[in-house]
Design brief:
- The protein is of the alpha/beta class and about 300 residues long.
- It has a single domain, classed as Alpha-Beta Barrel (TIM Barrel), CATH 3.20.20.
- It contains 12 helices and 10 strands.
- It has a 6-stranded parallel beta sheet with strand order 4-5-6-7-8-9, covered by helices on one side. It has a two-stranded parallel sheet with strand order 1-10.
- Helix 2 links the parallel strand 4 and strand 5.
- Helix 11 crosses helix 12.
- It is globular and about 50 Å long.
Length: about 300
């Protein structure tokens, strides 16, 4: 799997109601923007805050609307093993292409326990599995030796790394010598350019919800070694990060910024899952001002 695979935000109308019209607009926006796949029920999608009923509804509706135009990846990370399996089975029935699992959160597991957990999970999986390294939220990282041990499992397609640690990412890329069919994908969009130059295969980048064509263009420029254009596009991605993601003061600011921008663009509602809430008027106005400038810059660079 290569390219830009946006981690979809989850359009909500209230605590447990999916914004169906918004979801349809978002999916069409991303596919029209040239993305190479979609990842739902991840961090950007507020996955752990969604009820199991809502997760199943989101999976069903996403797969139905995508209709196999691009691959659909579904996050199954959970503290309960059985619930991860249940979501994976529903994903297969709905027509998803793969599932994505981070280490179970809450009580941190040791590496031998994590390795055993994934090996117990695999026989229960009706779909291929992607690993998801997100230590800032799960408190546990997939150590390189653990990843190396899991390369023997042909059902695992690769790994998404959101650690922000480029040394770790380089080491993941070195493992491709043993599994050249693996995909190594970057989470933080600020490191997308570096990731592709390091041998990575693309990004699972939240900003692609807003400007999918920009991230696709950056990926294409990096893959084709058009360094001048790649750096120009990368600078714009950094401005998105510095403006839309820095409005809030808390860790939820990135998701709030993306959802707020999409609401200003008329794509979907910006309701946030509890315990978070959408930006208030002062922050919304700052997002609107930044978005106006960014839209013009994107249109100038990516016709």
């Amino acid at each position: 799997m290569k390219g830009i695979i946006p981690p979809l935000i989850t359009p909500l109308l209230d605590r447990d109601a999916l914004d169906h019209a918004g979801l349809e607009k978002l999916i069409e926006r991303l596919i029209t923007g040239g993305v190479h796949g979609l990842f739902i029920i991840g961090t950007t999608g507020e996955g752990p805050s969604l009820s199991y009923r809502l997760r199943r509804e989101l999976i069903t509706e996403t797969c139905r609307r995508v209709n196999q135009r691009v691959p659909v990846f579904v996050g199954i990370t959970d503290t309960a093993f059985v619930e991860s399996v249940n979501i994976a089975r529903h994903s297969a029935e709905a027509g998803a292409d793969a599932v994505v699992a981070a280490p179970p959160y809450y009580l941190p597991e040791a590496q031998p326990e994590l390795l055993e957990y994934i090996r117990h999970l695999l026989p229960e999986m009706p779909l291929p599995l992607f690993l998801y390294n997100m230590p800032s939220l799960t408190k546990v990282s997939f150590d390189i030796d653990t990843v190396r041990a899991l390369q023997d499992e042909t059902q695992i397609l690769g790994i998404k790394d959101s650690s922000g640690n480029m040394v770790y990412f380089h080491r993941l890329c070195q493992l491709l010598k043993e599994r050249p069919d693996w995909s190594v994908l970057m989470g933080p969009e600020e490191l997308l350019l570096d990731a592709v130059f390091a041998g990575g295969h693309g990004g699972v980048n939240g900003g692609a919800n807003i400007f999918p064509e920009l991230y696709v263009a950056l990926y294409d420029a990096a893959v084709s070694s058009n360094v001048v254009r790649a750096r120009e596009l990368h600078a714009l991605v950094m401005r998105i990060s510095a403006t839309l993601y820095q409005v809030g003061r808390h860790s939820s600011a990135i998701i709030k910024g993306i959802k707020c921008a999409l609401s200003h663009l008329g794509v979907c509602d910006d309701f946030m899952a509890e315990p978070f809430h959408r930006f208030r008027d002062v922050e919304r106005n700052r997002i609107a001002e930044a978005l106006t400038l960014l839209k013009e810059e994107v249109s100038n660079l990516v016709p």
